[in-house]
Every structure is written in C-alpha cells, then in structure tokens.
Design goal:
eight-stranded antiparallel beta sheet; eight-stranded antiparallel barrel; about 675 residues
C-alpha cells in the first residue's frame, strides 16, 4: 500500500479520498488554488500545497504543478478524483515519466475512450450495441446537417471529448440544427479545448443506465451492477439510484457483460463506468465510457458494501480485486441526490455566494453526506456549484425513498439559491415513487416539480414575524445585561401603550407584494426578564387573525404555536448582496426554505430600491459574453433571449426582464464581465 498520495482535485471527492486513505493508514497531500485556501479538503489532509490562482486552467489543470507538488512532498501516487485531469492521458503519461503512480486506468485506455467517436468504433468491433448516429471525422456543418437528416429528427449533438452535459444539444428540426451545432461547438471548445462533435438519434423517452466496472492488473474484470441516472436537467444528473428500477435479472446480466466486454476491449484497469441509453422496450445502447470514478459511485458502495476508493488504491498498488463476480450481491436500494447551488426557476443558473447557514442531514438520520464545504465557505464561479451529495440506503426502494424525503427535510442552506425544493418535489412525485423515470422526467412533470412561485402563506409570514419579535427580545436582553440599569423600562420591547395593550407592525416584501403584519401583545405577557426570549401575541395578516406564541431555543430554532397548531421552525436572518435583510423560513413540512425581505420603513433608499422598476439586464455571475441576440433600437418582449453568457464552462441565455426597447448594448462579444455588471440598457414599454 502507498505511504503517501496526492489528491489532484478539490471538494467532496478530495474529502472522500482523504477519509479512505486515513482508514488505510495512507498519508495525504491536498492541493489548492487561491479560492480554496481555506477549503475543507485542505484542512483534512496531512499536508497541503498551493498550486496557483483560482481559475482551474491556472491551477488544477496545470499538470506540471501537480507533479511538482507530488515530488516535493514525496507522494508515491496521485489520485485524480473526477473532472479536471482525471481523464487526461497526457497527465497519466507525465505521472509515469516522473515515477509517480496514476491512480486510474492506463493512458491507452483513457485515449481509447477519450474520443466518443473513436470509442464508438471500438465498441462496434467488440459487438457492444450502439445508438444509430454519425461518429466520423468530417466536421463540416453541411455534412453534419446531412447526417442529421439521414438519422432522422430529433437528434442529439454531443461533444466528442467530454461529458457533464457540456457541448450537448437536442435538436428537434432541421431549421434549428445550424444554431444548435454552433452553440455545441463553442461550449465544447471552451470546456475541452476540442470542438469535435458527434450526432446521434435522440430517443424520446430514454433511460440513462450505467454499469460500474472494475479491472485489475491480474487480468480480472467485473461489474458491480447498475445505476439509473435518468433524472437530469440540462443533460446533467440530479438524482441517481441503484439498482435501476424495473431491471430484470436477465437484462442486468446482459448489460453487465456488455460493460465488461467494453472494458476488456481497451485493457481497462481501475474504476470505470460504461454508460448506456435504454429505450422503452428495454433495448440498450452504448453511449460512452467514463474512465474514472463517477460522482454517483456512493450508491454502488451502499448496495454492495464495498469502498470503491479503497479498491482503486489497492489495484493501483498491484493487488488483485478483493472479490470476484460471483461474490458480489445487491443488498437493498440506494439513492443519491446532488445538492446544487443553482436557481431552478432561472433555467438552473448557478448561484454564487457565501454559505451563511448550512445544515445537512444528521449522522443518526440514516443518510450519508459527502461534501467539500462547511458553513461560511463560498460557492465561487470557478468550479462546479455542487454543495453536497446526500445518499440514503434502505432494504427496498420504498424504504430508501422515505429516508431520502426525511433527509431533504433536514437540509437547510442560506446564502445561495439551491435545488433542495426541486429534489424534494421529485422524491415526492407519484411517478418517481412508481419508478417511472427517464431523462425527460423533469421537463414532463415541470408543472409539479418546477411550479411557479406562489405567494407566501399566512403560516410562513407568521413564523417570520415571530422570529423577528424573538430577535428584538434577544437583542433587548443583551443590551439590558450590558447596561448599568438592566431593569430600566427603556429596554422593554413590548410595544407598550398607555391604557392599552402593546402592539407593533412588521412589514415584509414577498416577491412583488408588500405584506404588513400587525402584532398585538397580550398585557403582561411580554417584556419581563423571564420572557425575554419568548413572545405571546395575536397576529393580523390581512383578514387572517390567529393567536401565536414562540420560545427561542439555544440553537436558534424555536417552537411556535399558531392557533391550534404547534410547529418547529428555524428562521435564518441573512444580509443579502444588495444590502437588504432577508428572513429564510424553514418549518415542519416545508423543504428548501421560503425567503421574505424585511421592509424597514426608516430605510428610504432600500424601500426605493425595492420598488424601482428594472431598467436593464445584469450579469448573474462573472462570465464571458458569447453573443447578443438583439441590437440597439430593437423592440423586445418579456422572456425574449437577449444575451448568451458563458460561465462555469456552460452557456446561459439571459432574457428580457420586460417588454420594451433596447437602448444600448454595454459590452461586446468576447468581453469578460463581472458579477452584477449591467449588460443591456432597456427602456420599458409604457
């Protein structure tokens, strides 16, 4: 076994490798960029080496710096994780030349599967079933268009050199092919420095099923069953499960043997994944092979009881795999969800910011959490916006699904937008519970899993108000304790009135509506030292009137009574990037939190800003302008595409915020823009 390894990656996979290495008595070296200086994986490792500026191309993608760090620290092997250089044959060659073990497949295997087009040819020779398509070298737009016509629409354009949904477009008709091809090539070039694409028949209700394979240097190769990764957005996986629902013993064996045949065809060693697409009849076709560990490997670990990272380390040291095919068996069912910092309501636009509050499922909840962040860390524009993977296991699919729903209910994130509510709605959907999954699931059920925002209900407004009142009492108690006269009536926050009950007003902004909440205190029920962290009152919200009370706990949560109902809640106060103060409500039965903006009537500038009509279009994150879809002087409609922005190696189309006229374009294609930059100046329609 190694005595020391370097992990050429970051985030949750780096933390995952460190944990396994520590259990095996292997010391670890972390690498970090400027953005990751205080990251969790850096704190966990035995040693850490700085490798450059924040952009990956200047740090994690610089092979020479990684090898130099390994040599300087005496690391005998480099674990590439996934992403970055994990599937880079040149990096594997450089490791070998430096006398360092690349903990992954041989360079020849990476090269064989590095081009999707060449991989298809190899798989055809190995008699692995293929999707009808064009995988040739001629990349002229005219030929690709003709091939698409031959295959028949809809077709899928896919970057030959990479994955993760980058450089991928579904095209419904010939009229849309040219624009889709140009976008796919641009994105592929940016992500993989290679704009070569292939064109395949797009199956209308396909399932994405992949098989975990493993090989060693002793000639053994086996499969550790399948994972269903059909729940996707923008061709990127959102929820994975193992085993695949509805899989028969015969089909599992056929897919597993096809995956092993694919691995043997290229002399594969180590962990890899053979990805298939399956149609409604059960026929399956080879898509690609990922020559690395996959993000979703934990679900395989949960149903097999094996540590795949340990297998990687042992095989890289020349050991045989610890089990044979006949010794492997499936135990129960597992789900993994990817908790992303993104805004599903804005086409899954990544969200950057500081994780001001982060509560993930507790250890005793039956969930496993793989994460590379802690509360207070930042989600930056430089890397993938995944916050954590939440994994659950149960004796069967129904039990595992119940555990997943509980785990999501315990998940709280403040500081960035997340997909928590989307994950919870998918997990609660009857079609998902029935195993009716395919890659179009989210789009088909978007009315349920991506509903339009509704007004906050009375319960949410009342809980936010109670939190605000408890905050006043806590602050008043702190001031009183620090003063020379702690019993002074000037420390009271009970809204005292001469000859009348005390009252206060708290105002909220819920999306576009202003909501005043009137609070009537019960005489003698607030303001005492004993009640400094409690409130007892009657709340009026519009026509709704309810008796309410709450007591604040040490951890910031509180137990509230609303009428006859008793509920537990946590309301997190967050100062937003624009300086406004938000209150995010997490309560029993709700997932993802609901945000309300506190309206302070004394803050005139904030009130004006809140009510000011939008006059332009801002960059939602740092990026590069790819294209403008409009010209100065052109009339536009709300929702019309205006700007194509490249950020996090993917293209994002920004749309007009309202009907109106484009007055000015403030940048040009190719320009780099900072977060919040004004891109287009509009004149709103009358």
């Amino acid at each position: 076994m190694f005595s020391k390894i370097l992990i050429a990656n970051r985030g949750e996979i780096a933390c995952r490798v460190i944990k396994t290495a520590r259990r095996l008595g292997v010391r670890t070296v972390a690498v970090y960029s400027d953005a990751d200086r205080d990251a969790r994986h850096v704190a966990m490792a035995d040693e850490a080496v700085h490798i450059g500026p924040s952009p990956a191309r200047e740090s994690y993608l610089v092979a020479d710096r990684l090898i130099a760090a390994a040599q300087a620290t005496g690391a005998e092997g480099i674990h590439p994780g996934y992403g970055f250089l994990s599937e880079n044959a040149g990096f594997a060659d450089a490791c070998a030349a430096a006398g360092i073990v690349f903990i992954g497949p041989p360079p020849s295997a990476i090269r064989a599967m590095g081009s999707k087009s060449e991989a298809k040819k190899l798989m055809e020779a190995a008699k692995v079933p293929l999707v009808p398509g064009y995988h040739g070298d001629d990349q002229s737009p005219e030929l690709l268009a003709r091939e698409a016509d031959r295959i028949g629409y809809p077709v899928l354009i896919k970057a030959s050199a990479g994955g993760g949904g980058k450089g991928m477009r579904v095209v419904e008709s010939a009229a849309k092919f040219a624009e889709a091809l140009a976008g796919a090539k641009r994105e592929a070039k940016a992500a993989f420095a290679d704009d070569h694409v292939l064109v395949e028949k797009y199956l209308t209700r396909p399932r994405h099923i992949e098989v975990q394979v493993f090989g060693d240097t002793h000639g053994h190769c086996l499969y550790l069953f399948e994972r269903d990764c059909s729940i996707q957005r923008r061709h990127q996986k959102v929820i994975e499960e193992a085993p695949a629902p509805g899989m028969t013993v015969e089909r599992r064996k056929a897919m597993g043997e096809a995956a092993v045949a694919a691995a043997r065809a290229i002399g594969y060693v180590g962990a890899g994944t053979v990805e298939f697409i399956a149609d409604e009849s059960g026929d399956f076709y080879f898509m690609e092979m990922n020559t690395r560990l996959q993000v979703e490997h934990p679900v395989t670990e949960m149903i097999t009881g094996q540590d795949l990272v340990e297998w990687q380390l042992r095989v890289a040291c020349g050991e045989a795999m610890p089990l044979t095919q006949d010794q492997l068996a499936i135990d129960g069912h597992a789900f993994e969800v990817r908790l992303y910092a993104e805004d599903p309501s804005r086409n899954f636009l990544p969200s950057v910011g500081t994780l001001k509050h982060l509560a993930l499922p507790r250890r005793g909840s039956g969930a496993r959490v793989d994460t590379g962040v802690r509360q207070g860390d930042a989600v930056t524009p430089y890397y993938d916006p995944m916050i954590a993977k939440i994994i659950v296991h149960g004796p069967d699919r129904a039990a595992a699904l119940r555990r997943l729903q509980r785990a999501l209910a315990e998940t709280e994130v403040v500081g960035v937008r997340t997909n928590t509510a989307l994950l919870a709605r998918i997990a609660a959907h009857p079609a998902f519970a029935a195993g009716e999954v395919d890659t179009g699931f989210i789009e088909r059920h978007k009315a349920v899993v991506l509903p339009k925002a509704e007004a906050a209900d009375t319960r949410v407004l009342a809980l936010a108000t109670l939190a605000r009142l408890l905050e006043w009492r806590r602050d008043a108690a702190d001031r009183a304790a620090a003063s020379a006269e702690p019993t002074s009536p000037w420390h009271s926050v009970d809204g005292w009135r001469l000859n009348g009950a005390g009252r206060d007003e708290v105002r909220w902004k819920d999306a576009e509506r202003d909501v005043p909440v009137m609070v009537h205190y019960r005489r003698g029920a607030a303001g005492s030292a004993a009640g400094a962290y409690a409130v007892d009152c009657r709340i009026e919200i519009g026509n709704a009137v309810l008796d309410a009370g709450a007591t604040l706990a040490r951890d910031g949560s509180f137990r509230a009574t609303l009428g006859e109902a008793v509920t537990s809640a946590r309301v997190v106060r967050n100062v937003a990037n624009d300086g406004g103060v938000d209150y995010v409500v997490f309560a029993d039965g709700s997932v993802g939190g609901r945000t309300l903006r506190l309206v302070d009537p004394r803050d005139v500038s904030a009130a004006e800003a809140a009510g000011a009509p939008g006059g332009g279009l801002k960059a939602p994150m740092p990026g590069k302008i790819i294209d403008f879809k409009v010209k100065a002087g052109e009339s536009v409609s709300r929702g019309q595409p205006v700007v194509v922005l490249e950020a996090m190696k993917m293209e994002h189309t920004l749309v007009a915020p309202s009907d109106g006229t484009v007055k000015r374009l403030l940048y040009a294609p190719g320009d780099q823009v900072p977060d919040g930059a004004d891109l287009v100046e509009f004149e709103a329609a009358e």
